[in-house]
Amino acid sequence: MRPSGRDLSEMRAVSIETGVTKHAEGSCMIRIGDTHVLCTATIEDRVPPFIKGSGLGWVTAEYGMLPRSTTSRMRREATSGKQGGRTVEIQRLIGRSLRAGVDRVALGERQITVDCDVIQADGGTRCASITGGWVALRLAVNKLLKAREITTDPLISPVAAVSCGIYAGQPVLDLDYPEDSEAGVDGNFILRGDGQVIEVQMSAEGATFSRMQMGQLMDLAEAGAAQLVAAQLAAVA
């Protein structure tokens, strides 16, 4: 029934390769099916002005898609002089999702910026960015701990994200682009490894949904997030 031939509750193949860049404090290439995202984490001894002097750390994110990450070439946003609304919305989502898994007191007054660059897109780029972004963040924090720049691990729990939706009338896990473009209902689910929900984005894309269907999608998301957390922990072990 699904274009890929997957079962309704089946994730695409997931792989996470760490240490893929030389200079970043943490880096990984996450591949979820044909969606590939390069995630890097940078530690800086500064924080935004609105929390300066508070003793709190900050985690933020930037997101972008390469011109040929999609089937036709996109203009670089730099050529227009500003980021598009979708880009701004996604990078804010990534930042606040990752912060939900961080003890900012334990992090200390420093900033970690997670950059997510989409190399190839086939649906679920924001979810892959959050999932890979946490791996890059974990590796960067490990360096702080190893250097004894912090004494307490500030990462409360892994943070992972997965898309779910209603395609051809059926709830499905981890939508690829053919499904995403035709889904009647589309949702992104961000969860911590301890089961706590960070954010749910759901919208009717041509068909409404019932409370029962929302529950079915949540169940799928929890199962998918558990698989992603297992992949994250294996990657940073």
Give a quick rundown of the structure:
With 237 residues, this protein is an alpha+beta fold. It has helices at 77-80, 85-99, 104-107, 125-146, 177-180, 211-236, and strands spanning 14-18, 26-32, 35-44, 58-65, 111-120, 159-167, 170-173, 185-192, 197-204. It has 6 helices and 9 strands, in the order E-E-E-E-H-H-H-E-H-E-E-H-E-E-H.
Overview of the structural elements:
The protein is of the alpha+beta class. The chain has one domain (14-236): Ribosomal Protein S5, domain 2 (2-Layer Sandwich), CATH 3.30.230. The chain contains six helices and nine strands; from the N terminus they run ββββαααβαββαββα. It has helices at residues 77-80, 85-99, 104-107, 125-146, 177-180, 211-236; strands at 14-18, 26-32, 35-44, 58-65, 111-120, 159-167, 170-173, 185-192, 197-204. The strands form two sheets. The protein has a five-stranded mixed β-sheet with strand order 1-2-3-5-4. The termini are far apart.
Labels describing this entry:
237 residues; alpha+beta; Ribosomal Protein S5, domain 2; five-stranded mixed β-sheet; four-stranded antiparallel β-sheet; 6 helices; 9 strands; globular; Ribonuclease PH; transferase; tRNA processing
